[in-house]
Structure to design on (178 residues):
């Protein structure tokens, strides 16, 4: 709904989609959504993200599990958290703007920031425990966050991320974002 509110046309593909499946649709961008479980077991999603990064050009945005898949696609590891992050009102610092965002979260795994090996920049950090909450992949038009910027019942401090993704698609596609 958030992407549609920015004028995006949404095509939903199965989780086992390949690079060819994605490219057949000629997307302006690829959104990796949230989902349950251990990201290391989602090999098709990791492989797709890796293929898209290697292909280049197509903007990507991931949230929650999508964030973890993008991290694993560049060789980062994910770790099981002792208690996870659940509920609203989690303070997250946007390392780019310096602003604090109040977020909604529901996850048990996190990208290990120490395993990024210079392939991505940490863009968001959880202020309660220092966990990586966002990253920007240096070699691709890709970024992601661990929290839920689409959350309806919680805060909307991170809603701007959908505008940033829309603007990135416009930039890469010469203003022809559909």
């Amino acid at each position: 709904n958030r992407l549609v509110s920015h004028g995006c046309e949404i095509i939903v593909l199965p989780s086992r989609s390949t690079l060819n499946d994605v490219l057949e649709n000629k997307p302006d961008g690829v959104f990796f959504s949230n989902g349950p479980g251990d990201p290391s077991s989602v090999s098709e999603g990791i492989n797709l993200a890796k293929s898209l990064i290697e292909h280049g050009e197509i903007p990507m945005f991931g949230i929650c599990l999508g964030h973890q898949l993008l991290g694993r696609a560049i060789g980062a590891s994910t770790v099981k958290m002792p208690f996870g992050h659940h509920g609203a009102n989690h303070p997250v610092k946007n390392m780019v703007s310096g602003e604090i965002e109040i977020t909604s979260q529901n996850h048990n795994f996190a990208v290990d920031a120490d395993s990024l090996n210079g392939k991505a920049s940490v863009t968001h950090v959880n202020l309660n425990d220092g966990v990586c909450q966002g990253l920007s992949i240096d070699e691709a038009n890709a970024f992601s966050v661990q929290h839920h910027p689409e959350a309806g019942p919680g805060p909307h401090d991170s809603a701007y991320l959908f505008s940033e993704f829309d603007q990135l698609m416009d930039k890469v596609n010469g203003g022809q974002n559909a």
Q: What stands out?
A: The mean pLDDT is 92. The beta strands are 30-32, 60-63, 78-94, 100-111, 120-126, 132-137, 142-145. The chain is about 25% helix and 30% strand.
